Amino acid sequence: MTFNTQNLLVITYVVTLVMFLKTYCRIQQALQWWFSRQSLKLFIEAKKIHDGLLQESFTIRRSLDLLAQDNLSLTINKTREYLKQADNFHHALVQLSDRLFPAYIQDSLPLALECLLEPWLTSNSHLCFHFDIPPYWRYEPAEQSLIVLRALEELLILTLSHVSVPTSIFISLKQQKNMGQLMVQITYPDQSTVIFYSTLRELKYLCESFRFLTSGTCFCRKQNLSITCYFYW
Fold first, then answer.
1. Do the Cβ atoms of 196 and 24 come closer than 8 Å?
2. How many other C-beta atoms can be found within 10 angstroms of the C-beta atom of residue 113?
3. b or e along 124-133 (b: 16 or more beta carbons within 10 Å of the residue's beta carbon)?
4. Strand locations in the chain, DSSP E?
5. For the chain, which residues score pLDDT lower than 70?
6. CA atoms of 63 and 24, how far apart (whole Å)
7. Which of 75, 160, 209, 227 has its CA 20 to 30 A from that of 168?
8. What is the distance, to the nearest Å, from the Cα of residue 191 to the centroid of all Cα atoms in its chain?
């Protein structure tokens, strides 16, 4: 083996090692970001349980204690109040269950998507949503669908949470041969907003995490006033 060949092999090895380390660091940062986001969600849910559901359950329990001590004091208004507390408690538990493990996710990804998007539709009048979501979908493991839903949720949080002006969102779910495709196009009212959100480092982390967790593909493009993100898996 000649000296030049040895040098070439060493250079090739070093370049390959450097590329590997760069890729490893990028994926590591993306997954650390993903885990921190999911950990934050769990912390928020735990706080909601502590500050909301536990306090509500204590109130209901105390009301029942008082009722047991003197049922003669029970009035129609009191009955309605207790029933309302019980209904609120039940509704909060349903919402908590859906946040931890979205409804329909084991049976239908389109229905699970609709449930995920419902709070965005009812709480953000300045956001205009348009959909192209099929009524039926192929079978796939719930854990795979959960990654897709979480990725969509993170994308919406990153790009819409602090937007207070009219914004258009188009969401499309399609099957491309053996691959699923989720496309999200967000159109902002001005160029400065597009530039700000399109250059978020977290968008790159989101795409890297999705690619690694699903063995699929994810990328985002900016064109005019729109940011379009594609998820393939």
1. no
2. 23
3. beebeeeeeb
4. 127-132, 167-176, 179-187, 217-223, 226-232
5. 1-21, 24, 39, 46, 64-74
6. 57
7. 209
8. 26
